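Long-time lurker, finally posting.

We've been working with Prephenate/arogenate dehydrogenase domain-containing protein (Cyclostephanos tholiformis) and I want a structural starting point before designing mutants. I don't trust myself to interpret raw outputs, so I'm hoping someone here can both generate the structure tokens and explain anything notable. Sequence follows.
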Amino acid sequence: MTNSAAIFPFCSLKRFIISCGILAATAFFLPAVNSTTTQNYMPNMAQSDVSPGQISTAGELERLKGEEARLAAMLASVRQQKLSVLRSRPLTVGVIGFGRFGQFIGKSFVKYANVIGTSRADYTKVANDMGAKYIPLSDLESFVLEEDLDVIVVAVSIVSFEDTIKDLVPHLKKRIETKGSSSCPLIVDVLSVKEHARTVLLEHLPVECDILCTHPMFGPDSAKKGWQGHNFVYERTRVDRAVLDPAQERPFHYRLSQRDNADSESEFLDEKGGSHNIRENSDAHVAGIDRMERFLSIWEEEGCNMVSMSCSEHDGFTANSQFITHLTGRILGAQGLKATPIDTKGFQNVLKLIETTNADSFDLFYGLFKFNRNSMDIIIKLRDAMDDVVGKLLEEEGKSNDNVESSKACI
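Top reply, 14 upvotes:
Generated this for you. Predicted structure of Prephenate/arogenate dehydrogenase domain-containing protein:
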């Protein structure tokens, strides 16, 4: 059983980090001095050759720089304490799907957690080289039952995600039966489509399993030099059997930056309108929140931009960004475009787009289409836009309306 008293320091450290950031920003943008301060600086201003504008800021910039340095040092100290707390009780993270992406995230996870990978292929040597443990997927029962897992990250393809969850469920139920309801690991997905993942996890997983839906908006190619500055989108979906309302739930970094009342910082509502707080008299609830915070902190420590967003909102955005990017890259790639001796920078960017999008599996592209209800709208809009642009070109050529419409129809 988790000791709730040991959890609060970790939450408090995160709260203090954000508070320091707010104080530093506030101190920097406050007006330098008021009229009274100016008079105190130079009571004989009328007899001075110094202008009022110069007097009002005299010495204030130096003072603000000193305050900024003090807060920066305090923030660095607290961040170091936070990292120490995070590493003092490292999570054990299992990764189902230890292929290219699973290995990619596993290499960073091992800095903060004990990592155990599983997959169909044999990646024992790869796991050993990065300091992780490996168990074949054929022995999924040992992976779930015998290992003391805090978190299971499901890093498989979109099209195989539901089948993987269905295969996982019997072993989770057996773990709960043999070790108790509090033994169920936090289940995390990393799919590029979020409504599908959320629906599958809520439909199939035992209610004892907490759920965190995430999407790292980067991969082995785009983040080969590190995760710093890359977006990490997540939705806390279920904690201690309570399915959270994504319209109400907010993470630490958002809530703490918006509120001054320390007693209400950790409140959120579930989808039935029930109010919850990390200080609730429930070890399971406190442990669930702490476990999520520790896992999310891994991404924070690696430099990700943490973005709290509902699964529905995420899919609306990615259809207009990620899917259309892959769609455009696939369409241009189908034309067989190749580099020439006189390429412009713009065309080089086109070739780079083709290279990066076609490097991903077609299963990923198909999954982005099939499991995001917004994708067909994007295809229709792209086709209409193509017809419109080509139609304008033909009109400039002086073609008749009938010829224009005929040409557009052929397209």
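Before you design anything, note these points.
The mean pLDDT is 82.
The chain has three domains: 4-85, 90-309, 315-410.
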